[in-house]
């Protein structure tokens, strides 16, 4: 390959690097008409074209490499844009303006360096092979997956952003995960001391070991595991593999060899227009240093790419002036946010802190000395505050008189900043630099829905962190222009979930086909409307989920009345009301688990889960459980799951009411109740709260005079305490109030909306809900109670129903025409129980052969 740069009227532009930033630069060049003046050659060292590195961990969770590719492959399949994959650039010959690869030379008129960075691995004796893995590319993840085969424990060196992502990846491979960090806290760049402590508490609660202030001295052979890590201080740690995520270094080997000026701390030195010391060469992304700083996020790299693309196309380029390094993340399922001056380094800055030691939650707000500007924030455990705080920081919006109200818990906090208060210059999408004004312009230009806005502006197509704010802005601006915001369930039903519920209820509609014919479009439906309508029908009429009219609407779990697990087997969860079980019941469950070789675990909801059942075994297993007096626990459905209880006054010296009896009454009443989201209950026999009732959708706590009722709490990714709703209720009134709350929720909630989110969305809040349920302000209470009684009266165990119908049993086969089990499902023994065997990694040579 020896190509002249001026073989025709077009100049030659070479881009070295086909990562996210390099790819974005090419997209920006094309959008600005660069192909009228340049032929673009893109050189990528990897064998794959640009892919989404922000969501790299999804690759280990089953996402295939092709689906992670950025843009359309056709972008690189023209005569004007040529992509060279697996083509490492060896040298930049500045004198002749050529680059050198193993395949030959390529001349250039202009050159863009987008070589990114490489993971730093400290020089530690013994770090090699599976003890020297890194977490950067898809190839790296393939090596980690291969090393995890047969392993039990993995360690990540580095407790920063990428290190915690790597730890999550190890957990997804069924490894015991540990994080070793040199600093005294996790994520030291983004979080302060208390934020790091809160994050550590949450991560340790998920079973990840955290080892802080540890400097690895060497790595030696282990005794119980493959490797033994020795530290300067503290006990050694053994492991089967080690992933290094100890920071990144700008990839500047080419630039250094070519004699380009480098910044003192690394990176190609660039000016405000991303030009290097050679006027023909630009640098963007993590390989570039502006004012001596390297920016390790996607958004700043995209800003640089836009600046360079404009300059190369002869446009007035927006100078690069640094970047906002605010980040919103979910690490191992934990919300983490860092905004602006998170450490309060600004002279005179003052801080407000909210600390929840019980829930390992932490929020810090940093304001200016005069209290008139929000400078930064730290969030651990709840990112629902992030969008509002970011706008205060980015747009200089004056905080409330009491700035602390911005980080107080829901109900005490200042009202969320409405999108109407944002100036047109407010940045909605940092990745693609999309302002509120640009979104308004797109709407005025004809974009009439969220999908069109994304296509036009690319907002929310980068890291995706702005998706919620974008939706709010779009809906607000459409409504302001008199455009009815389309909240249709899907293309087949021009109604919300609440409206469809009312149609089904009032019209007495009992099948999907009836509803589609009378109020929908098309003949088949889709994956959005089918399960939503199935849930509505079940909530209204409580027909068995295996009813032929409902089966086509269900997902896999409801279809087979069991939760599918990661290896294709299913879980079996018999109902154990209130956690009360007889010795004979325990023996029966144990006998079934032993007979079918099932993994057995007691859950936090006081039930016993049996894992590893194959599809064809489910009817036999349930036949034996039902014969022993059990029924389905509905663990597979959006329905009532568990009612947790303590032993109450029957056994406990502190109990003031019989919590077990009440929990039994509640569970038997609401078992089988289908709802927009799963429901969990608890009953505590006294205010010591051993059943943790205040974290449940419905929580009941005994008092000397009856029962206190708490509503709309939940655990999960965004925990929320339930709120006190009514006090000192007698047994009958407690049930009536719960009937009304649940049925009002089912009637008015959106699809897949938890009770906590539903409660927060109610106009008028808890007071309004009390007026409806306790004061009957809408005149609905009798109707709500009657609806619930219909559901209760029609209850039957879904598995018992299916076992009595030969037609329904036909679907419980792994293969349609063969009764054999699935030969690909394999187990290994661990702690005396079976668990799924790790996925086998097929070597490339074997795959080819």
TrEMBL record:
<keyword id="KW-0408">Iron</keyword>
<feature type="domain" description="Nitrite/sulphite reductase 4Fe-4S">
    <location>
        <begin position="637"/>
        <end position="761"/>
    </location>
</feature>
<dbReference type="InterPro" id="IPR017121">
    <property type="entry name" value="Nitrite_Rdtase_lsu"/>
</dbReference>
<keyword id="KW-0001">2Fe-2S</keyword>
<comment type="similarity">
    <text>Belongs to the nitrite and sulfite reductase 4Fe-4S domain family.</text>
</comment>
<dbReference type="Pfam" id="PF04324">
    <property type="entry name" value="Fer2_BFD"/>
</dbReference>
<keyword id="KW-0285">Flavoprotein</keyword>
<dbReference type="Pfam" id="PF07992">
    <property type="entry name" value="Pyr_redox_2"/>
</dbReference>
<dbReference type="InterPro" id="IPR023753">
    <property type="entry name" value="FAD/NAD-binding_dom"/>
</dbReference>
<keyword id="KW-0274">FAD</keyword>
<dbReference type="Pfam" id="PF03460">
    <property type="entry name" value="NIR_SIR_ferr"/>
</dbReference>
<dbReference type="InterPro" id="IPR006067">
    <property type="entry name" value="NO2/SO3_Rdtase_4Fe4S_dom"/>
</dbReference>
<keyword id="KW-0411">Iron-sulfur</keyword>
<dbReference type="InterPro" id="IPR006066">
    <property type="entry name" value="NO2/SO3_Rdtase_FeS/sirohaem_BS"/>
</dbReference>
<keyword id="KW-0479">Metal-binding</keyword>
<comment type="pathway">
    <text>Nitrogen metabolism; nitrate reduction (assimilation).</text>
</comment>
<protein>
    <submittedName>
        <fullName>Nitrite reductase large subunit NirB</fullName>
    </submittedName>
</protein>
<keyword id="KW-0560">Oxidoreductase</keyword>
<dbReference type="InterPro" id="IPR045854">
    <property type="entry name" value="NO2/SO3_Rdtase_4Fe4S_sf"/>
</dbReference>
<feature type="domain" description="BFD-like [2Fe-2S]-binding">
    <location>
        <begin position="428"/>
        <end position="475"/>
    </location>
</feature>
<dbReference type="InterPro" id="IPR012744">
    <property type="entry name" value="Nitri_red_NirB"/>
</dbReference>
<keyword id="KW-0349">Heme</keyword>
<dbReference type="InterPro" id="IPR041854">
    <property type="entry name" value="BFD-like_2Fe2S-bd_dom_sf"/>
</dbReference>
<keyword id="KW-0534">Nitrate assimilation</keyword>
<dbReference type="InterPro" id="IPR052034">
    <property type="entry name" value="NasD-like"/>
</dbReference>
<keyword id="KW-0004">4Fe-4S</keyword>
<dbReference type="InterPro" id="IPR036136">
    <property type="entry name" value="Nit/Sulf_reduc_fer-like_dom_sf"/>
</dbReference>
<dbReference type="InterPro" id="IPR041575">
    <property type="entry name" value="Rubredoxin_C"/>
</dbReference>
<dbReference type="InterPro" id="IPR036188">
    <property type="entry name" value="FAD/NAD-bd_sf"/>
</dbReference>
<feature type="domain" description="Nitrite/Sulfite reductase ferredoxin-like">
    <location>
        <begin position="565"/>
        <end position="627"/>
    </location>
</feature>
<dbReference type="InterPro" id="IPR007419">
    <property type="entry name" value="BFD-like_2Fe2S-bd_dom"/>
</dbReference>
<feature type="domain" description="NADH-rubredoxin oxidoreductase C-terminal">
    <location>
        <begin position="326"/>
        <end position="396"/>
    </location>
</feature>
<dbReference type="InterPro" id="IPR005117">
    <property type="entry name" value="NiRdtase/SiRdtase_haem-b_fer"/>
</dbReference>
<dbReference type="Pfam" id="PF01077">
    <property type="entry name" value="NIR_SIR"/>
</dbReference>
<feature type="domain" description="FAD/NAD(P)-binding">
    <location>
        <begin position="13"/>
        <end position="292"/>
    </location>
</feature>
<dbReference type="Pfam" id="PF18267">
    <property type="entry name" value="Rubredoxin_C"/>
</dbReference>
<dbReference type="InterPro" id="IPR016156">
    <property type="entry name" value="FAD/NAD-linked_Rdtase_dimer_sf"/>
</dbReference>
């Amino acid at each position: 390959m020896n190509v002249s740069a001026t073989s025709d009227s077009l100049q030659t532009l070479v881009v070295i690097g086909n990562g996210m930033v390099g790819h974005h630069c090419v997209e920006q060049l094309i959008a600005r008409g660069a192909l009228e003046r340049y032929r673009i050659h893109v050189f990528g060292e990897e064998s794959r074209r640009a892919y989404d590195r922000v969501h790299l961990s999804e690759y280990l969770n089953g996402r295939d490499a092709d689906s992670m590719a950025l843009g359309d492959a056709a972008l690189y399949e023209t005569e004007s844009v040529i992509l060279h994959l697996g083509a490492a650039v060896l040298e930049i010959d500045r004198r002749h303006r050529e680059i050198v690869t193993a395949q030959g030379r390529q001349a250039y008129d202009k050159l863009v360096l987008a070589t990114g960075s490489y993971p730093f691995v400290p020089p530690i004796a013994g770090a090699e092979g599976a003890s020297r893995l890194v977490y950067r590319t898809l190839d790296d993840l393939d090596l980690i997956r291969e090393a995890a085969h047969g392993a039990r424990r993995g360690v990540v060196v580095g407790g920063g952003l990428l290190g915690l992502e790597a730890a999550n990846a190890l957990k997804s491979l069924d490894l015991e995960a540990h994080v070793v960090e040199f600093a005294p806290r996790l994520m030291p760049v983004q979080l302060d001391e208390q934020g790091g402590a809160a994050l550590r508490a949450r991560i340790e609660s998920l079973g990840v070991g955290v080892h802080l202030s540890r400097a690895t001295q060497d790595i030696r052979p282990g005794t119980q595991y493959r490797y033994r890590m020795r530290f300067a201080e503290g006990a050694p740690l053994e492991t089967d593999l080690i992933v290094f995520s100890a920071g990144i270094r700008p990839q500047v080997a080419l630039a250094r060899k070519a004699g380009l000026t480098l910044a003192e701390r690394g990176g190609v030195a660039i000016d405000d227009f991303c030009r290097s010391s050679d006027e023909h060469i630009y640098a963007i992304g993590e390989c570039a240093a502006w004012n001596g700083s390297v920016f390790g996020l996607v958004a700043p790299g995209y800003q640089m790419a836009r600046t360079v693309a404009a300059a190369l196309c002869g446009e007035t380029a927006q100078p690069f002036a640094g970047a906002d390094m605010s980040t919103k993340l979910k690490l191992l399922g934990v919300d983490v946010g860092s905004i602006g001056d998170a450490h309060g380094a600004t002279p005179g800055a003052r801080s407000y802190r909210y600390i929840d030691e019980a829930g390992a939650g932490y929020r810090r707000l940093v304001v200016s000395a005069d209290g008139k500007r929000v400078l930064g924030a730290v969030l651990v455990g709840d990112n629902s505050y992030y969008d509002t705080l970011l706008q205060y920081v980015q747009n200089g919006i004056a905080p409330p008189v009491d700035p602390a109200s911005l980080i107080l818990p829901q109900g005490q906090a200042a009202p969320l900043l409405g999108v109407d208060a944002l100036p047109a210059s407010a940045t909605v999408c940092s990745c693609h630099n999309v302002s509120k004004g640009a979104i308004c312009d797109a709407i005025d230009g004809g974009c009439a829905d969220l999908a069109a806005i994304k296509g036009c502006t690319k907002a929310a197509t980068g890291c995706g962190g702005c998706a919620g704010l974008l939706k709010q802005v779009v809906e607000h601006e459409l409504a302001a222009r008199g455009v009815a915001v389309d909240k249709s369930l899907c293309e087949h039903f021009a109604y919300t979930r609440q409206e469809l519920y009312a149609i089904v209820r009032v019209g007495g509609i009992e099948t999907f086909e009836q509803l589609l014919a009378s109020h929908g479009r098309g003949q088949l439906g889709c994956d959005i409307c089918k399960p939503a309508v199935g849930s509505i029908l079940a909530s209204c009429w409580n027909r068995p989920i295996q009813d032929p009219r409902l089966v086509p609407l269900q997902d896999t779990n409801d279809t087979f009345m069991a939760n599918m697990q990661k290896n294709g087997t299913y879980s079996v969860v018999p109902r154990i009301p209130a956690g009360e079980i007889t010795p004979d019941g325990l023996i029966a469950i144990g006998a079934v688990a032993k007979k079918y070789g099932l993994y057995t675990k007691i859950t936090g909801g006081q039930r016993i889960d049996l894992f590893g059942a194959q599809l064809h075994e489910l009817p036999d297993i349930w036949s034996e459980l039902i014969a022993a007096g059990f029924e389905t626990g509905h663990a597979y459905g959006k329905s009532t799951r568990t009612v947790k209880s303590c032993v109450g006054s029957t056994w406990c010296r502190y109990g003031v009411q019989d919590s077990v009896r009440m929990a039994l009454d509640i569970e038997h009443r609401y078992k089988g109740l289908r709802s927009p989201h799963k429901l969990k209950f608890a009953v505590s026999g006294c205010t010591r709260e051993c059943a943790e009732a205040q974290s449940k959708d419905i929580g009941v706590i005994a008092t000397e005079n009856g029962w206190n009722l708490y509503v709309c709490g939940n655990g999960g990714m965004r925990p929320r305490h339930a709120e006190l709703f009514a006090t000192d209720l007698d047994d009958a009134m407690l049930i009536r109030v719960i009937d009304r709350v649940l049925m009002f929720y089912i009637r008015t909630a959106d699809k897949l909306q938890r009770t906590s989110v539903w409660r927060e969305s109610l106009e008028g809040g808890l007071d309004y809900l009390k007026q409806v349920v306790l004061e009957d302000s809408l005149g609905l209470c009798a109707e709500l109670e009657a609806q619930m009684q219909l559901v209760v009266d029609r209850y039957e165990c879904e598995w018992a129903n299916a076992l009595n119908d030969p037609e329904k049993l036909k679907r419980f086969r792994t293969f349609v025409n063969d009764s054999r089990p699935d030969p690909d499902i394999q187990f290994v023994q661990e702690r005396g129980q079976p668990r799924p065997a790790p996925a086998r990694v097929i070597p490339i040579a074997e795959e080819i052969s």
